Amino acid sequence: MFKQITLAYSFDALEPHIDTLTMETHYSKHHATYTKNFNDALAKAGLEPTSVEFVLTNIDNVPESVRTAIRNNGGGYYNHNIYFDHLSPNPKLVPTGPLAAKIDETFGSLDAFKEQIKKASAGQFGSGWGWLVANKAGELKVVATSNQDNPLMKDGGVWKPILAIDVWEHAYYLKHRNMRASYLDDFFKVLDWAKVEENYKNVVNG
What pLDDT score was predicted for residue 199? Predict the structure, then answer.
């Protein structure tokens, strides 16, 4: 059984950038439901996987009777794990080391990267996610996915998420209303690049 991650901060810790009620609802209601429904779908199919990454990478091999439920709820569980984990009230606001160098090489600068991922995230029609992904060679690219899909579900999981931006309305609507771009600006004020660097290192060295 997969357990809901424990937040390393209180619901009000990300104020004023992400409001308390949004965080409480997002974690206690949405993420808790994804976690429960994911476990329920796995149990229904008699599956006992060792990792959520394995399930999502092999989503096309999941029994058809539960594939949609696992895709939606397993994706929701995994995507939010990344999202919540790299938010912080005391974030490292800029990357350093190999990740910073690769961002400069790939996108030209940190600002240019931010503009690209904000554009991809803001342009996602309806609900979905913006991602920075990496492969084993350390290459980077920006992608967007709809609903609770994520990059592990494509190309055999070659590209692995290291930064996730939730652009479902439940992630921002209470504070930012319909101004998704404003939410994206605030997201980067609480994004802890130390966590993203850790994710990058794990992909390259994993």
Answer: 98
